[in-house]
């Protein structure tokens, strides 16, 4: 074990940026019992509401980012992509190699993060919004000097708000197109299923409840059974029955091709944005 590895019971985590994503991660860490809230900190400069939110569940709230970095072994940059460079360079003198840097900013590459920080012990994470309800899908890529132990630690932290996957950074635009933007596609699908229920005669509230729970249940079946979704689809599709009639309509509307195209379009857009 390298000398900068800290046992979990002594670990401290700081958030630069006190927005919704930082809050979700901090709440997840507390709820999972991974760390007590007083082992985490953030800084709030003007928004008193954010100050109160973090303080309400025991996170230390400082008045400056410098204090957060000084108190932390892991520093998570959870700020908008356009301010990451400014945030890191302003703190560079305090971001020593004994501090693991994690960035959740979309489109900001490891090579830039490492250059701004002045060292390579950096991990880039791409989370998604369901982290707010503990069902996030996060993907990480390790910087040059980040160790396997660093990766395992970050996987534990983000594992408290969902599932963590590991991938080469060159896949991150595709990750953005699938898990980053994907929740919006599923929200549309839930809305459309509910509208279909209303069109077929259901009250709106019942239709929406059934639609959202059906999507949740179907996702859980794929995740928990390990069966291919095509097999699960076949299991519910009886000869000449109701489901195959609905599936036939989806095929006529190019449902699968449309979803595939949506992922590719979002991935291409992510690629464009990261090059600007």
TrEMBL record:
Occurrences of domain Pyrroline-5-carboxylate reductase catalytic N-terminal (ranges): 13-107
Give GO cellular component annotations, separated by semicolons. cytoplasm
**Domain of life from the UniProt record:** Eukaryota
A Gene Ontology BP annotation from the UniProt entry: L-proline biosynthetic process
Residues reported in the UniProt entry to bind NADPH: 65
Q: Which Gene3D superfamilies match?
A: NAD(P)-binding Rossmann-like Domain, ProC C-terminal domain-like
Residues binding NADP(+) are 16-21
Pathway involvement of the protein, from the record: Amino-acid biosynthesis; L-proline biosynthesis; L-proline from L-glutamate 5-semialdehyde: step 1/1
Record-linked Pfam families: F420_oxidored, P5CR_dimer
Domain spans labelled Pyrroline-5-carboxylate reductase dimerisation: 169-273
Predominant location of this chain? cytoplasm
Catalysed reactions, semicolon-separated: L-proline + NADP(+) = (S)-1-pyrroline-5-carboxylate + NADPH + 2 H(+); L-proline + NAD(+) = (S)-1-pyrroline-5-carboxylate + NADH + 2 H(+)
Provide any one GO MF term from the record.
pyrroline-5-carboxylate reductase activity
The alphabetical list of record keywords is: Amino-acid biosynthesis, Cytoplasm, NADP, Oxidoreductase, Proline biosynthesis
Q: What is its EC number?
A: 1.5.1.2
Location(s), subcellular: Cytoplasm
Which HAMAP family is this protein grouped with? P5C_reductase
Q: Which PANTHER family match?
A: PYRROLINE-5-CARBOXYLATE REDUCTASE (PTHR11645), PYRROLINE-5-CARBOXYLATE REDUCTASE 3 (PTHR11645:SF0)
Could you say which protein family the record assigns here? Belongs to the pyrroline-5-carboxylate reductase family.
Protein name, UniProt field:
Pyrroline-5-carboxylate reductase
